[in-house]
Amino acid sequence: MAEKVVIIGGGAAGPKTAAKLRRENPDIKIDLYTQEEIISYSACGLPYYIENIIQNAETLIIRTVEDFQKQNIDIHIKQQCIGVNTDEKTALFLDLISGNKYEVNYDILVIATGAIPVLPSISNINLKNIFTLRTVQDGINIKNKMKQSKRAVLLGGGYISIEVLEALVQNNLQVTLIEKNSHILKMFDEDFAQMITDYIIGKNPGQVTILTNEEVIAFTGNDKGEVKSVITVSGKEIDTDFVVLGTGVKPNTDFLQGSGIRLGIYNSIKVDRTLKTSKQGVYAVGDCTDNYNLVTNRYTWVPMGSTANKEGRCAAINIAGGSCFFDGILNSTITKYFNLTISIIGISYREAQELGFQPEFAIVTKRDKAGYMPNTGTMTLKLIADKNTQTILGIQGIGEGDVNQRINTVIPAILSKTKLESFMNLDLPYSPPYSPAIDPVLNAAQIIYHKING
Amino acid sequence: MAEKVVIIGGGAAGPKTAAKLRRENPDIKIDLYTQEEIISYSACGLPYYIENIIQNAETLIIRTVEDFQKQNIDIHIKQQCIGVNTDEKTALFLDLISGNKYEVNYDILVIATGAIPVLPSISNINLKNIFTLRTVQDGINIKNKMKQSKRAVLLGGGYISIEVLEALVQNNLQVTLIEKNSHILKMFDEDFAQMITDYIIGKNPGQVTILTNEEVIAFTGNDKGEVKSVITVSGKEIDTDFVVLGTGVKPNTDFLQGSGIRLGIYNSIKVDRTLKTSKQGVYAVGDCTDNYNLVTNRYTWVPMGSTANKEGRCAAINIAGGSCFFDGILNSTITKYFNLTISIIGISYREAQELGFQPEFAIVTKRDKAGYMPNTGTMTLKLIADKNTQTILGIQGIGEGDVNQRINTVIPAILSKTKLESFMNLDLPYSPPYSPAIDPVLNAAQIIYHKING
Asked: Which of A361, B213, B243, B357 is the most exposed place for a label (fewest CB within 10 A)?
């Protein structure tokens, strides 16, 4: 049994590992190091803090340093890991307050350093009021600036940009979103990305501009060193009060160079299904690890707070001598833009084609309740199945109706590779306030089944 | 290929069969006979019509007689089937208008006669204002009487009684519900039934009385032949303006005596997975058929509008020469009492014990969204799994939070017998407006897994 566990990283996965490990083992020594000042917070809630749905940033903190100390977990804030020596079982830290470097011994090391924003190569990117959104402090900075602003530019059209867009629109800003691909939300098929774009534009006409196939090549600044405008490759100059970079993230693993810990796709840390790395005594959890995609049977990297929590829990059980397996993911994601739920699970039709599946699809637009009930909402679902195996590869769903109920119904069927023939007559509970007599997701499965089988 | 298809029954399954068959085959002759005047309606919506969430009963009609005639489907209303001769391939009908009897030939017969209320043996049950709720006319009668009433008594504590209770409470009636078992909603475990009871009583204090372990032995009437009170076995006399009998239903199959068509459990019609009965050329669909329970691997009888629609669709495909299998059900049911969602899928802990499983359970009470989001709702889930197979046997869920999303997530896992070990780390999509980072249903699975495996 290990005597001393050192955890690096204070976002979601590290604190989860610490808390679960303490519940599993009241005696083991646990030290958690983080570069930040705040630990154990929900980064996924930051857009709602900016929007002011959540008034205080402290609300996003799940457990404080004091909470951990009560559990006899020592938290070391503002301490950056700059190297790991797996032969000596030591981690090298830089004290961000004093500037001193020092070594820490471990029996078990848990790396939970998360992901960090990728800064694009754009001239003058170091101007003031060009933000990324990853930490609580980032959120506070953006919210403060937003309150004094009328215009903003968002770079990148991923989920975080959509969530920040809602926040800024709700706070009456004029926003331009710039996406280099032909459509936003590139994990979706183009038809769905277009429907989402149309909803965003239609919801607040004149307030939001979405530029696709467009790239920012430079920022201009004023004499205070603040960003003043963005210049695009097509020659546009867009005046703005601030910029939020939603141009992607990468695993925070540069400090592992030379440690011998094996890295995988996009330099994420390779872990097995027990969350062990290639080096004895070293675990990795959360956004810094690779993920096994159970649909494509390939390794991928999809940093998600839910996965981070599950991995942290699982690693803690294993460190404590128990047995927990984290087999992989299904690329499950969901967000919203005001009342529109936006979700994709598994792979898109396009990706299925690229990966060599023989995909078929069905698109249905249906009400979420019996048609005669009040307050029904509509939804559009795109179900993707493989002709050869007759199993479901993915689903995309958007709508003001109850999309997430349908999405969640498909997920275990993707995992278990349930045949369409069984799935399309699945006994979903029916009552007029909850669904039509035949649920929309079953309609979609019936259509694909008959497209494939006649 | 059949030339003439005769369908008996005009509720959900019969009209669904007719409509789907016409889409599959534009030429085949289709005749549908029903005892009622109205066809193709949603009986499940009747409580919401009584409540006046739906103002007009016509809203519940999915397709009218004229709609069917446009599709070249002949509808014969007020015609009761009183016998079937499968050797001669004829059905004997009674014209409820003229009183004449006549025979009809068929190539294919589809029996969709549904279920009818069971009238308990209670003295004076034929008094006026003692209603059952099955047809649109029943709904109209109850609603009309309710508008002039201050008090009502409901017999039986099943789903329909709970739905009618909501309707009457919303319309300011004083209601007494009388249940002969020790708790209402007997398919639930007693703990959940009690929580539901507490919610009902607490929601409108003083307005609802629930009497369990109680039976009605007689009704008393006034000089107009209208019910005036109910007398219970324990000696209570409860004054009332009307009574609704929610004392169960039975398959409407008495007319098949002597036909040679094999009946199964509770005299429901035995069908195979293609919806064929034991007699060549005769199909049966909907509430009059038996059901195969895919959890218990036993035949059961669970009349549900959703199953009726699926069976009707499937039978039509098979009659048209295609191939569709309806493998069975999972006892999936859901309803609501005002804001409380009430659902059970599969089997309860008690039923699992009775059937010889080795059940384990977990109960969790959780919020449906990230705790820091506004407008979260709570839910209580009880997940049941089998220790031997480590698969899920059932789930019960109640709450004002989004219960149905979690319930639906479990259903495909029950169908596919997914191991708890896989299910508990299922990649459900996470975003603060939709769920906590680890979904409540996964919390429940984790707890059971560790109860079983340490």
From this structure: B213
